[in-house]
Each structure stands twice: as structure tokens, then as C-alpha cells.
Design a protein that fits this description.
Helix content of chain B: 25-40%
Oligomer: heterotrimer
Largest sheet of chain A: 5 strands, mixed
Helix content of chain A: 40-55%
Structural class of chain A: alpha/beta
Radius of gyration of chain B: 29 Å
Radius of gyration of chain A: 23 Å
Distance between the termini of chain B: 39 Å
Chains: A alpha/beta (495), B alpha/beta (948), C mainly alpha (72)
Strand content of chain A: 15-25%
Shape of chain A: globular
Strand order of the largest sheet of chain B: 15-14-27-26-25-16-17
Largest interface: A-B, 35 and 35 residues
Number of helices of chain B: 30
Structural class of chain B: alpha/beta
Chain lengths: 495, 948, 72
């Protein structure tokens, strides 16, 4: 039997040369069976080539294509090879992780139903099929799962609302319009373990009584779109989608369509404009029907909760933040990538220990958590644990789990300006605080930075931030001030 | 009555009223209030006197939540919910005025003003600007952002629309215009282009308004809270200082308007939200096309002349009235009592129409009175009276919102009844089914937002065959409502009809050869209507103006009775009336055979009632109808006519015949706004007032009686009714009324269906749908609820009889006629407004294949020849018409569409067969001799006018 | 026959044709007569009767029967 060699094929690994690596290996005259996996998200090690061994998977990396002949100089490499990282599961940054949602990522061929099943796939769905809808919803409620898109709303309550709504037709919608800076987990899951998302949606549809679902994927993710479509075909052929009409939709290409009501407008074929709430999408969503809108991560967590039981999931984490968070470490950081860790892990552990500090080697100046609308957190607050409430207490948010690291050369005044200009760029234009406020925000910051009546303008900027926070229709205008305010508070010399 | 003469804008509670019996109690600023469940917090507060600042909210539109001015605090809720989008809940505690809210609102308005011109003093909306009002209300004192930042102050103005201007520099992007275009009008012409700060309002794909899909209904202009969309009349004249609630004088929808006036000058017409027919919506005619009322062509002084070749002599009213009376009397002396007659106008008020028929019957002593409804909806009167017992539509317009399947037959609502069409389209967008029966592809058939489930594109003149095929399907497929038929209809008549309609000769398959409509399509449509739940039929002149107009009306009634689609909301038989008061002019006894309230002259009791009240003896036999009058005139036995506001010389068919008849008369009295075509044959011209100069009532297509209120004094010094009364008095039959309301009192006293109607009740209720009497003191929204007016419904067999007007080798095409949105009837009014920008000539629509074989290209001059005459129009080559069919409008006198129409008419009522004329079409180089002559004659007539 | 009587006859025949959904001529004639009595000016009825008595024009049997039923 030929030896299986695993080469990642997610978009990030490919960007780092994984395809050339695979091609180079294929060109070798060796009895090798190349399996293209997704990615484990250890991006500082990509291209991470893995190989079966008696002890488990041996890892080699990073392997540039040019190094392939060297790697296979003596036939199949062993643990003594210069590039060997040892057993992949022993790589310290991976070993400390609690991989539940991402357990199969980088391990299996994403489009192999057999492998998916072999690694526990569809067990959750099978269990769910034995349960009444209300029982499924209760499992989700007991797990303590909260919306991973950023809102952190208890997922079980949302499901319960849709389940309770009476309607001829209900929808499940997966929000895969991942647009936060520094985030990539939705893409990584769709490219590495698409069946898990399908399974999660099937369970969700069973639970709430939906017969139609959509996966709304960021247009900048062509590979994720293609992988999901192919996975849907395979799952359909295998008979997993007999009760659910599931379809992939390419998103409109604007940040605001990641906001769930704008997403629904876009799905309806309209301009992506935010709707007011209530009515909640759970009651009047897509085409006015009860609609469950969940993020990729929330839905991806569902199969494991059903398969392993809510208690096991709820056992991880702390306080009201249960389970694991898939942190995406990015920016100026030595070991950037995916870290699935239980809630409660401190920011310092992530940035300094796991991430290894800045890539530049200079001192860390700040971390922006939760995407472009998240606060800039100074090192003094790095002991804050990953916990929705703990972050809120320091006027920050975890959001979708993205952490962007900056060293001491960053111009945070410019970053504050960027927050407002990002909001201006991405505003749908419906509500006034966001539509006009964001533009004025840029102008006022410019005046402060130019020293024009800086004190008056600082007061005006604070006023404006309050107006946007209190007055905006959705989270874009309502949160864009947070980075600005965090900089004014923690880095007053910068703005 | 003071309530109807208002100052300032109408009340706006911010979000639409909710019809819900369940009440919810909540606390607003410490005050406990109760409102219907489903009401917004904003509306609840407004109803109870708490005005929450707002910009994007408007009572006409669903809540949007974008301006963020109306934020409130609600105990137990985090943040600041928008009061427009938050619905009341039991026990809710709302604070609308807190220090924090005041600051928030001030800061938001500050953002608005940082991108708004500071030209309030010179702005057209000064004094009528919601932005200004809100800035004042929240106490904005400075704009700390300065005015150097990004802004839209240099945005270009779009002045291309005739009636309003679009000044993007003043736009606050509240989307009220976009939403009004979608929700109220249903045209979707407006959109927001760009995103964020770049968001701008655009017509169609960034076109100029005039080139866009905009239909100038004015909804966006009304919705705009700033000067961005403003009536040009307001820009020119300034803000109005008072408003008068009145009723539109265009189509049979009967929209209620606030006529906003400064002094005696009408500044603008704004649709009245409380209007029960239009609910605050309007169309380009009613909203904007009122300029004819002050057009220089208006005749202000009475005129007389000995012969029609003479110059007109301006005279005072006494002279004119006496001259007219003396000429009529001398005719009667010489040729007999019955040698004169009169025609009432469907554009005049009920009171005025009533008086003219009274004048003919009582003062002239004969029954030669008819109405212009003769040429439009007389078959409706005949057909509905025969089958159901009342000559009127069965529903309210609002009923359409409960219809499941809508059938539109021979009507083009988006052009001819635009405000009702918008309501119908709203229902269609909600998912109601639509069946269109029309030879032409009207806009409803295949629009961007509505589509017909079935378009039965029949050959002109085969309506009855189609309705029979539909009925055949329903009966033979056992889709009829047997319970309804058994309980509500005369059994013997039903059995007779059933036997008739079940025959193979009436099947869709047999009749396909006649109608050209595939049998399967007919069957599918029949099933859709019969199984609808609520099936509602709407029809227009495409039903009535045929040689079998009355048969078709009865066929429609049969279909509705057979399926039980009568007597409740959402169903019914609904004639869409062409002119504002077609229903009323018929109600008022304008037809030669019946007295007001559709009571036949032969009914002795009714006759005696009138004889007692009028103190005259009435002739119990019917008089002449309009076409009979013309025929008799040519015979030399009919010599004098009093014509109230109808241009028969243009609007009646077979123009040459009509002209010959008018020319043969010895005294033609025309009472009109303008020196119209008919006035060219007149000996006396009595200048009548426009609807803006009148008090009275109109009755719309839903039997809704609405008040017309005087906005400005009559140009000629005399009210329409005063002229008729004076003429009667001069004829020796004194009529004395102080005010039109006293005429209505007489009508109510003599007409059982009107006995509860008075101006006082109209003021109280806004409007009243007759019958209104002791049984129905508030009027009757739905007819035939428990039983038909005639007792049991009466099925009438409707054999298809082909029209004499058939295409042949010489006249191979069938001409049918219709209307266009911007013009009204013969165009006397709309041609004297800027509506000419939209439609300045009538064109002939011809199918590409018919055009090609004749060598006719789009825009070419086309000769059109029928048995009656010929004319020339420019070609519109289009697939809206089928091969073999051509189509035109007749809004322009020089087009002469009626030169080619024939004198064929409905068998029962003599309603002309405008909708079918066999013609030939051929390319020509220039307009016809007649048309050139027309211009010359027109100029000559003008020369005969006195030079003032 | 004058233009007008020609027209009257045409109208009367049109009415008759539209009433002719039964083979029973007397039913048709009664309906036609009723219609003429209700809607026609007596002068028009007289002209039609005169035309009938002249006998110069061909008329449908039902109309002939109806003319016998119309009153002055």
C-alpha cells in the first residue's frame, strides 16, 4: 500500500506555495498517495507536509517547493529529517489547543465523505434525527453556545424563537460573509471541513423546522464557494439533504452584507441595506418568513454538541462563555494562525506565549480584537481572559475571534482615522449617524491630528462617537467608534 | 364645515394607522395611553399629543427607521429604540423627552445640517420644511463640524419634470420619495444610488426625471420633507395660506385633494390622506394638471350669435339667458314641445346634472335628456340593473385588497384609473392572481413588478364569446357555487341560462375560432377565477363600448353570480368609470327613460312624486337618446339643444354625422369652459365654471359621493347651477335655490337611495356610498350583501352576436381605441396643461408584421380609412397589439379618431361601438385634407371670437 | 325608406338578435316589445310601425310579432 502524504490545499496554504509543493511531490518517482487536506491553521509552518507513521502523523515544514527534493532525498523522510517537526499533534502550539470545532481541519480530505464519517462526521445528525426538535434546541441551549459571528447571542434562544414561530415556510441561513480584518476561520472551515457545516445546517433545519437553507459566502472566497458547492453535491448524492434544499450564494462583496438583515436583503436580490429590528429575523426574516441566521462557526459547533453531548461542550470555558473560541492571530505576530482554545485563556498567553510576540521582534504596542470595529487593547490589559463579559468590561469585544497585533511603530491616530474611514467606506447609507457621522469622524480626527482646536474637536469627536453608538441602526455605525474611543482612552498621546 | 377649510399641512402621526380592535395600554412620558395593538410608539405618542421629532417617518409610508431622530427610552430595553419601528406593548414605559435624548437628537440634526445649504430664507420650502421644523424643535444652535467638510451642496438640479424640481443639494436621503414610489405608486422609478455618504436619489438608472420611468404621480413630492422635491408652482408662487378639501374632476376614482391656495390663486393640489377613495395618493392629472382652470382660453363672458358663421357677441348674463330662452321657446312654438332637448355632463356635479334633467323634463316639458355617459357606461346601467337590480358597481376600491383573483376586462387602470391601479398593483404584489382580458397588451400584463397569470388576448368585438366560454367552463366543470345560486338567484332564469351556457356552442373550444384565444387558456382562467376564494372583476369601456356592450355586462354579472363572487369584501363586479361623475350623472336621472334613482318614467308613483314636487305634469314616455337626437336633427324634427359641458362634436363617433346634425339645428347652446369643437356649431355660449369654482358633489365609481368645494370664485360670475336655474326661469319655470346644498336636499327628498345624504352628513363622514337612507345611515360599502337589490339575482342568456363591423379585404384591420395616462378624454383640460410634455399627439399602434407589409415604419404618417371616414396619424410600431389590430387614443381633436369610428352601437343602449372599427392603414406623406381643414376652421372660429 | 327608418330597423333587428337565445318566437317577441316600450321614444316606435305596415322592408318574424306588441 502506498504511503499517504498530506499537503494542505486551503487558500492560505496555496498562497504560501502548497500547490507547487504538491506538484513537486507528485513528480517524484515514489509510491506516494498525495492527499490534499484543508489546513490546520498553523500558518507559520505552511507548507506543512504531513505523512502517516506508526506513531501518528509526522509533520515537516515549512516546506517550500524548492525543498521537496531535499525532503525526499532519501525516499520517504523520517522523524530524523532536518525539516521534521515531529508528530504534528505534539507541535506545542497545537498541543495546547482544544480542537473541537476544528478537529478535522487539515486532517482529512475535505471532500471525502468516508473520511468525514471516519472522523466522527454525521454522528450529530444521526443523533438529532432521533430527537424531537425541541430536544435538539435544548441540547444547544444546554451547551451554552453563543453566536460566534460576534454578537454572542445565545444560540439556543435564537433557535427556540424560530422553532416557536408558526409559518408555512422557514429558512436557515449561514452567514459566511466573513469580512472582519484578521479573520479567516469561516474560510478555513469551509475549505477544510465543509461537511461539518452542512451537517450543522441539517441539524439546525431539523431543529427549527426549515426546509430551505442558504450559505451566503463572501465573494472574495472563490475556493470556499467552490468547495462548499462540491460538498453540497456530494452530500446530496449521498442522501443527506433529502429534507433540506440547501444552496450556496455568492455574497454581494460589501462588508455590510455580513450584517444579518442586510444579508437577508441581499439574499432576496435587493440592495444590501440594513433592516430595523424588531421584527427579529427569527420571526420575519428571509422573504418575511422565520429565519435562523447563524455564523459558520456557530453552525460548525453544532454537530459536536449533538454527537458528544451538550455537557461536554459546556464543560469547557468559564462563566457565561462556554466551549472554545477559535482565535485567529494575525498582524505583526511571529506565529500567526488558528488557535482553538477554551474561553478563559488570557490575551497575554495567546499573543506572547503562543503567538511568540511580534514578527518584527519589537515590543507589542496594542492588539485590536474583534475586527475593524473592535477596541485597541494595550499590553497593560493583556491579562484579560477570553470571555465575552470580561472583554465588555474593558470596552472591548471578542467578536469573531480575530486578534491583530501591532508593534510600537504603529501610528494609532492613523488607526483611529481608519476606523472612521472604514465605516464611511462600508456604510450602507441608510441611517444618518453612520452615513454622515463616519465622514465627519474622519474630518474631525484629521483636525485633531493637525492640531486645529484640538481640545474642542476632541470633545466633538467624543460626542460624535456617542451619537454613533447610541443612534446608529446597526453595529457598523454603532461600533465603529470603539476603536477610536479605545485609542483616545488608552493611548491619549496618539489622539 | 370649518374642518374642510384648513391652514397648514395635514396631521402626520408618523406611521400608518392600525386597524385592530385589541387595545394596548402603555405609559408615555408618565401618561397612560391606549392604542390598537400593532401601533408604533411614535404614533401612540402623536395621537396623545406627544410629538417625537422625525424625518424619515411619514404616515403614508411603512416605518423605515433611518433618520434616528425619533429615538426614545423604554424601561427595560437597552439603548435607544426608534419609536417609529418599535411597536407598543402592554405595560411599556416610554420616555420621549430626556436630557440624553435631547442631546442625541441635537447631535444627529447637527450632522444633517453639516451637509445642507443654509438658504432657508430663500428656500421654496421655507415654512413647510420638516428639517427646519425638527432643527427648531430640538434646539440646534451651532454646527460644530463647520461647513468645510465633504458635502453635496454642489449637486446638480434636475428640472426636467414639468411639474416639480429635484434639487439634490437639499436631499437628506430619508428615502421617503423612494418608498412612496414603491409603496404608494408601485412604479419603482426611484432608487438610492451609491452607498454611504455617496447615497443619492436617482430616477431609474440615473436618468433625468423626464426620461425615467417616473409617471409624475407626485407621491415623492408629497413625501419629501425638504425642498428637494418641490412643486414648481410652489417655487413660483410661494407657500399657500389655506387649504380646501375638494374632489378631483378627472377620472372616476374621485380622489380627494387639499387644494392649497394663496388668496384666490391655487398653488398646488395635494392628495388628501383622509380621502376614502385615494388614501393620500394621486396621479399626474389630478395632482398637477389644473392649469387649464386659469388658462387664457377660458371664456369669461357669455356670447351669442344669430348664425354659426357670425362673429360672437359678448353680452351680459341676462341678455344671453333671455336670448337662449327665447330661441328655445320659438323652436317649441314652431316645431313642438319635443323639438328640443338637453345633454348633461358627467364632469359636472350631481346637483348641476340633476338641475339640467329637471330643466328639460319640467321646464321644456319633454324627456329628451341624455348624458354623455350614453357613450361610455350606459350598458353598465342596463346590464347591472337587469341582473342585480342596481345600476352601479358593487364594492369599495379598498375591497381589492381582499381579492385573491383579479380579473381586468377591457380596462387599462394604470393609464385611465392610475390611483386605483396603484392599489390593485399593491394587492398583486402581495400575491393575488391576475387575469387580463384585452386585445392589447396593457401594462398590467407584463410589468416589472406585476404579471398576469393569464392574458386572454381576444379579437376586438368578441368579448361575449370569451365570457360565455369562461361561464361554460365553470358550469360544465362543476365549479359553480351551487349554494349561492340556490339561495340568492331566480331558479327559472338560472336554469334557462344554464341550459344555454352548457351547450357545446359556448365551449372555449368552439369559440376559439371566434375569439382567437386558445381554449386551454380560457379554461385555466375560468378555473383560477372560480376557485379563487375571492374573485373580483374590474371592467372598463372595453366592455361597454361594443355592439354587445350590455350583453357583456350581463355576462360578467352572470359569471360573478354563478361563482358566488358577490355580496362581500374582495369580490364583486366593478365598472371603472371614465369620468369623475359618470356614476352621478346616471344616478341623477339623466337618461331619457328614467327619473333620478333609476326609476322608470312609466312608474306612476315615482312620476307623481316628482310631479307634485316640481309642480308640472311629466311625460310618461321616454325621450330621445343622444344618437336619436342627432338622427332626428338630420330629419329636421329636432331643432334645439342645451349641452352642459360635453364636446360631442369631438367625443361622439362618426364625426361627420354629428357635425351635420349640429349644423342642422336652429339653436345650439353650449355651456363649457372653452370654445370647444361643439361650440363651433353654437348660437349661445354660456361660460361655465371649472370644478375649482364650484360647490357640489361628485359620485365616483364606488358610488361614493364626495364634496366638491369652491376654491376660487367663478370666472364668469355665475355658478353652473345658477346658469341652468336662470335659463329655466327665463323659460317660465322658476327655479330658486340659494346654494347647491338645497338642490341636494331636493334630490334626497325625492330619491330613496339618497334620502340620508346631506352636506352635513358628507362633512361628518368625509364621503358616503349610496344607498344612504334609514336602513344604511352611513352608506353602503358593499351591495347585494344579503339579497340582491332586485330580490333574487337574474341570470340572462347572452348569445354572442357578431358586430356588423367586420374586417374584410377592403378594411382588413380592426381599430380599437383607448386612453393614455397624461391626457383625459378629449383633452380639453389636459391639452391646456404641461401634460402636453408627455403626450402631444395621438399615434396609431400597429403590429410590426402589419406595418412591414404596408411599408410603414415607426413614426411614419399613416392614413386610416374606415367606412365612415379617414384620418392620418403617426405610427407606433409595437407588439402591444396583435397582428390585425390597430389602436389609438383620441385626446387631440386634430387626430380625428372619431372621424373613422362608425355609428354602430350597443343594441340595448346605443352606446357607440368605439372599440371596433374595420379600417385600412397605408403610408402617406402628410396629414389628411380634413386635418388641414381642421386647423383652418379652428383658426376661423377663433377669429369669430370677440377681441377683448 | 329614409336614412332614419333604415337605422331604426337596424336597431330593432339588433335588439331581436340579442334576445334570440330561445327558439320560442313569442318569448323573443315579448322581450323585444318590452325593450322597445321601455327605452324608445314613441316617435321611433311609430316610425318602426309605419315601416312595418308599408311592408317594403324584410323583417325577422320575431320582430314583426314584437311590433304588434308595442304600445303608443
Amino acid at each position: 500500500m502506498s504511503t499517504r502524504v498530506y499537503v494542505p490545499a486551503d487558500a492560505a496554504a496555496r498562497a504560501l506555495g502548497a500547490d507547487s509543493v504538491a506538484e513537486a511531490i507528485a513528480n517524484l518517482d515514489l509510491d506516494i498517495d498525495i492527499v490534499r487536506t484543508g489546513s490546520r491553521g498553523l500558518y507559520w509552518l505552511e507548507t506543512l507536509v504531513e505523512m502517516d507513521s506508526d506513531q501518528g502523523r509526522l509533520g515537516f515544514g515549512p516546506v517550500p517547493a524548492a525543498a521537496v527534493p531535499f525532503l525526499f532525498e532519501a525516499g520517504l523522510p523520517d522523524a530524523d529529517h532536518e525539516l521534521c517537526l515531529g508528530l504534528v499533534s505534539d507541535i506545542p502550539e497545537l498541543a495546547v489547543q482544544e480542537r473541537h470545532t476544528t478537529a478535522r481541519c487539515g486532517v482529512i480530505d475535505p471532500l471525502s465523505l468516508d473520511e468525514y464519517r471516519r472522523y466522527g462526521g454525521f454522528q450529530g445528525l444521526e443523533k438529532a434525527r432521533q430527537l424531537r426538535p425541541q430536544d435538539i434546541v435544548e441540547q444547544i441551549q444546554q451547551s451554552g453556545l453563543r453566536g460566534r459571528g460576534g454578537g454572542a447571542f445565545p444560540t439556543g434562544i435564537k433557535w427556540q424563537t424560530v422553532l416557536n414561530a408558526e409559518a408555512d415556510r422557514k429558512y436557515v441561513v449561514c452567514n459566511a460573509d466573513e469580512g472582519d480584518s484578521g479573520t479567516f476561520i469561516d474560510r478555513l472551515i469551509m475549505e477544510s471541513d465543509p461537511m461539518m457545516l452542512i451537517e450543522g445546517m441539517c441539524i439546525a433545519a431539523l431543529a427549527v423546522g426549515a426546509d430551505t437553507g442558504y450559505i451566503y459566502i463572501r465573494s472574495g472566497y472563490p475556493q470556499a464557494i467552490a468547495t462548499m458547492r462540491r460538498a453540497l453535491e456530494l452530500a446530496t448524492t449521498a442522501g443527506y439533504l433529502e429534507d433540506l434544499q440547501l444552496e450556496v450564494r455568492e455574497a454581494a462583496g460589501v462588508y455590510i452584507c455580513g450584517e444579518e438583515t442586510a444579508l437577508l436583503e441581499s439574499l432576496e436580490g435587493k440592495r444590501g441595506m440594513v433592516r430595523y429590528r424588531p421584527p427579529l429575523p427569527a420571526l420575519e426574516g428571509l422573504f418575511g418568513q422565520p429565519t435562523l441566521v447563524n455564523n459558520v462557526l456557530s453552525l460548525a459547533a453544532v454537530p459536536a454538541i449533538l454527537a458528544d453531548g451538550a455537557d461536554q461542550y459546556a464543560a469547557m470555558g468559564q462563566e457565561r462563555s462556554r466551549g472554545t473560541l477559535t482565535v485567529q492571530l494575525a498582524g505583526n505576530v511571529k506565529r500567526g494562525g488558528l488557535y482553538e482554545v477554551p474561553f478563559g485563556t488570557s490575551l497575554r498567553e495567546l499573543v506572547d506565549s503562543l503567538g511568540g510576540g511580534t514578527l518584527s521582534g519589537r515590543p507589542v504596542r496594542a492588539v485590536q480584537a474583534g475586527g475593524p470595529l473592535g477596541a485597541y487593547i494595550p499590553p497593560a490589559l493583556f491579562d484579560t481572559p477570553l470571555d465575552y463579559e470580561a472583554f465588555k468590561a474593558i470596552d472591548a469585544m471578542l467578536g469573531h475571534g480575530g486578534l491583530v497585533v501591532f508593534d510600537d511603530q504603529i501610528d494609532l491616530g492613523e488607526m483611529a482615522r481608519f476606523a472612521m474611514s472604514f465605516c464611511a467606506e462600508e456604510s450602507c447609507g441608510k441611517c444618518t449617524p453612520c452615513r454622515i457621522g463616519s465622514v465627519r469622524g474622519v474630518e474631525v480626527i484629521d483636525r485633531i491630528r493637525a492640531g486645529e482646536q484640538a481640545e474642542d474637536n476632541r470633545i466633538l469627536l467624543k460626542d460624535l462617537c456617542d451619537t454613533m453608538i447610541d443612534g446608529s441602526l446597526c453595529a457598523l455605525g454603532g461600533m465603529a467608534p470603539y476603536p477610536v474611543l479605545s485609542i483616545m482612552k488608552h493611548f491619549p498621546e496618539e489622539l | 364645515m370649518g374642518n374642510y377649510y384648513r391652514v397648514g399641512s395635514e396631521q402626520d402621526y408618523g406611521t400608518p394607522a392600525v386597524d385592530n380592535k385589541e387595545l394596548v395600554s402603555l405609559s408615555i412620558d408618565g401618561q397612560t395611553v391606549s392604542v390598537p395593538a400593532g401601533t408604533s410608539v411614535m404614533r401612540a405618542a402623536a395621537i396623545n399629543g406627544r410629538r417625537i421629532p422625525k424625518l424619515c417617518a411619514n404616515e403614508d409610508l411603512s416605518a423605515f427607521g433611518s433618520c434616528r431622530m425619533c429615538l426614545v427610552e423604554i424601561e427595560g430595553r437597552k439603548g435607544y429604540p426608534a419609536s417609529c419601528t418599535t411597536l407598543v406593548e402592554e405595560g411599556m414605559v416610554v420616555n420621549t423627552q430626556t436630557e440624553q435624548l435631547a442631546k442625541l437628537r441635537r447631535n444627529i440634526i447637527e450632522l444633517y445640517i453639516s451637509d445642507h445649504p443654509l438658504d432657508c430664507l430663500t428656500c421654496a420650502a421655507n415654512g413647510d420644511c420638516e428639517l427646519q421644523d425638527v432643527a427648531g424643535a430640538v434646539g440646534l444652535r451651532e454646527v460644530r463640524y463647520g461647513y468645510e467638510g465633504a458635502n453635496h451642496l454642489d449637486a446638480a438640479k434636475d428640472e426636467t419634470a414639468p411639474y416639480f424640481s429635484f434639487d439634490a443639494s437639499k436631499c437628506i436621503v430619508c428615502s421617503r420619495c423612494v418608498r412612496a414610489c414603491e409603496e404608494q405608486q408601485g412604479t419603482f422609478a426611484l432608487t438610492v444610488e451609491g452607498r454611504g455618504f455617496e447615497s443619492v436619489i436617482a430616477a431609474s438608472q440615473g436618468d433625468d426625471f423626464i426620461d425615467s420611468e417616473c409617471v409624475s404621480c407626485g407621491a415623492c413630492v408629497k413625501a419629501c420633507p425638504t425642498a428637494t422635491l418641490t412643486e414648481k408652482s410652489v417655487i413660483e408662487k410661494g407657500q399657500p395660506d389655506r387649504a380646501v378639501i375638494t374632489t378631483c374632476a378627472y377620472c372616476g376614482v374621485g380622489c380627494s385633494f387639499r387644494a392649497e391656495v394663496r388668496g384666490n390663486e391655487l398653488v398646488r393640489m395635494v392628495p388628501n390622506r383622509d380621502g376614502q377613495a385615494n388614501h393620500g395618493h394621486s396621479c399626474v392629472k389630478g395632482r398637477f394638471a389644473f392649469g387649464y382652470a386659469t388658462h387664457p382660453d377660458r371664456i369669461a363672458q357669455p356670447m351669442i350669435r344669430e348664425s354659426i358663421a357670425d362673429e360672437w357677441q359678448p353680452v351680459d348674463w341676462d341678455t344671453a339667458i333671455n336670448y337662449a330662452a327665447q330661441r328655445l321657446q320659438s323652436i317649441q312654438k314652431q316645431y313642438g314641445r319635443k323639438a328640443i332637448g338637453g345633454v348633461t355632463s358627467s364632469r359636472c356635479t350631481n346637483e348641476e346634472v340633476y338641475l339640467v334633467q329637471k330643466f328639460i323634463r319640467a321646464a321644456c316639458g319633454n324627456n329628451n335628456v341624455d348624458t354623455c355617459a350614453r357613450v361610455c357606461h350606459s350598458p353598465t346601467g342596463y346590464g347591472l340593473k337587469t341582473t342585480m337590480g342596481e345600476s352601479a358597481g358593487t364594492q369599495t376600491f379598498d375591497s381589492v385588497m381582499q381579492a385573491d383573483t383579479i380579473v381586468v376586462i377591457g380596462a387599462n387602470p394604470t393609464e385611465a384609473h392610475p390611483v386605483f391601479a396603484s392599489q390593485m398593483k399593491r394587492r398583486l404584489r402581495q400575491g393575488a392572481n391576475l387575469i387580463v382580458i384585452d386585445p392589447r397588451q396593457i401594462a398590467l400584463v407584463d410589468g416589472p413588478h406585476v404579471k398576469a397569470d393569464h392574458h386572454l388576448q381576444l379579437r376586438p368585438g368578441t368579448n361575449v364569446a370569451v365570457i360565455n366560454a369562461l361561464a361554460h367552463t365553470i358550469i360544465t366543470e362543476q365549479l359553480e357555487d351551487t349554494a349561492f345560486i340556490a339561495a340568492r338567484c331566480e331558479d327559472e332564469a338560472y336554469q334557462t341560462w344554464r341550459e344555454f351556457i352548457s351547450q357545446d356552442s359556448q365551449s372555449p373550444e368552439t369559440l376559439e375560432a371566434v375569439t382567437g384565444v386558445p381554449a386551454a387558456e380560457v379554461r385555466a382562467a375560468a378555473r383560477l377565477y372560480a376557485k379563487a376564494g375571492n374573485g373580483a372583476i374590474y371592467y372598463g369601456l372595453g366592455v361597454t363600448e361594443h355592439s354587445q356592450g350590455s350583453t357583456m355586462v350581463m355576462g360578467i354579472a352572470n359569471l360573478a353570480m354563478a361563482t358566488g363572487n358577490l355580496g362581500r369584501p374582495g369580490v364583486g363586479v366593478n365598472p371603472l368609470r371614465g369620468q369623475n361623475n359618470v356614476q352621478g350623472s346616471c344616478d341623477m336621472g339623466s337618461f331619457p327613460h328614467e327619473l333620478p334613482g333609476y326609476r322608470h318614467l312609466s312608474d306612476q308613483g315615482t312620476r307623481q312624486l316628482f310631479e307634485q314636487h316640481w309642480q308640472v305634469e311629466l311625460d310618461p314616455e321616454p325621450g330621445y337618446r343622444i344618437p336619436n337626437m342627432f338622427d332626428a336633427a338630420i330629419e329636421g324634427e329636432f331643432k334645439g339643444i342645451y349641452i352642459q359641458g360635453e364636446d360631442m362634436a369631438q367625443s361622439d363617433p362618426d364625426t361627420q354625422h354629428v357635425h351635420a346634425a349640429l349644423a342642422a339645428m336652429e339653436c345650439v347652446i353650449v355651456q363649457d369652459l372653452f370654445l370647444n369643437e361643439t361650440a363651433k356649431f353654437a348660437h349661445v355660449f354660456l361660460p361655465g365654471p371649472s370644478f375649482l369654482e364650484k360647490d357640489g358633489t361628485f359620485t365616483n365609481a364606488e358610488r361614493r359621493i364626495s364634496r366638491v368645494r369652491q376654491v376660487m370664485p367663478p370666472l364668469s360670475g355665475m355658478g353652473e347651477w345658477e346658469i341652468t336655474a336662470a335659463l329655466a326661469s327665463a323659460m317660465g319655470y322658476p327655479m330658486s335655490y340659494d346654494h347647491p346644498q338645497h338642490i341636494m336636499e331636493e334630490i334626497a327628498a325625492l330619491t330613496p337611495t339618497f334620502s340620508g345624504v346631506s352636506y352635513k352628513r358628507l362633512d361628518e363622514l368625509g364621503s358616503i356610498q349610496w344607498p344612504c337612507n334609514d336602513l344604511q345611515p352611513d352608506g353602503t360599502p358593499f351591495m347585494h350583501v344579503d339579497e340582491f337589490v332586485r330580490g333574487k339575482g337574474y341570470f340572462v342568456p347572452t348569445p354572442y352576436v357578431a358586430s356588423d363591423e367586420r374586417s374584410n379585404a377592403r378594411y382588413p384591420l380592426l381599430l380599437t381605441t383607448g386612453r393614455i395616462l397624461s391626457q383625459y378624454n378629449v383633452g380639453a383640460q389636459t391639452r391646456r396643461t404641461d401634460n402636453m410634455h408627455y403626450h402631444d399627439e395621438d399615434r396609431i399602434e400597429i403590429h410590426p408584421s402589419d406595418a412591414e407589409v404596408r411599408g410603414i415604419r415607426h413614426g411614419d404618417w399613416v392614413g386610416l380609412k374606415s367606412r365612415a371616414g379617414e384620418t392620418v396619424l403617426r405610427a407606433d410600431v409595437t407588439e402591444r397589439v396583435l397582428p390585425g389590430v390597430v389602436y389609438t387614443t383620441f385626446h387631440h381633436p386634430e387626430s380625428g379618431a372619431n372621424v373613422v369610428t362608425t355609428e354602430n352601437s350597443d343594441w340595448a343602449t346605443n352606446c357607440p361601438e368605439y372599440k371596433v372599427t374595420a379600417v385600412q392603414a397605408y403610408p402617406v406623406r402628410e396629414p389628411s385634407n380634413r386635418q388641414k381643414q381642421f386647423r383652418a376652421e379652428d383658426d376661423k372660429q377663433r377669429e369669430l371670437l370677440p377681441t377683448s | 325608406m329614409t336614412v332614419r327608418s333604415d337605422k331604426l330597423l337596424h336597431m330593432a333587428e339588433q335588439i331581436t338578435a340579442n334576445m334570440a337565445y330561445t327558439d320560442d318566437q313569442s318569448v323573443v317577441a315579448a322581450k323585444v316589445a318590452d325593450h322597445l316600450n321601455r327605452f324608445w321614444d314613441p316617435r321611433m316606435k311609430a316610425a318602426l310601425r309605419e315601416l312595418h305596415s308599408e311592408g317594403s322592408e324584410q323583417m325577422s318574424p320575431a320582430l314583426e310579432e314584437a311590433i304588434g306588441l308595442i304600445h303608443d
